[in-house]
Write a structure and sequence with these properties.
The protein is mainly alpha-helical. It is 72% helix and 0% strand. The protein is elongated and about 60 Å long. 10% of the residues are buried.
Length: 136
Amino acid sequence: MNIDPKFEKALHYVRTFMKTAVKHEGHLTVFLKDPEIRKTWSDEERAFMRNAWFVETTGKCDPMNELLELEAEATREELDDFEDAVEETTGVDTPDFDEMTKKQIDFWALEVHGIELDRRKNKTNMLKELMEKLAE
């Protein structure tokens, strides 16, 4: 099995400590949220450690990870549909919203269409708001 070198230390930690110290999924969640663990390991490393713990203890991937991957795939498809709908509605080529931040989306909507969005919303809801305002 090839492991990205940046995760070798995390994998070693999972195999030498977490595999025996963390007894169940609930404990794993609490463990990875501990302030000391959060200071020591990046978000990416902790996500890797969660998956590695599942593989080491159950032989299977983290079921939550599979759900998140399915959700991300659905969101990408929705985003593509949204971009197509904006282009059809406005006749303006849309940028790749997936690569844009909320601030960039807000700026684009204001500059190109004169639409002010609520940046307090999450990105998905901002895009829904944009589509609704474009349809008006």
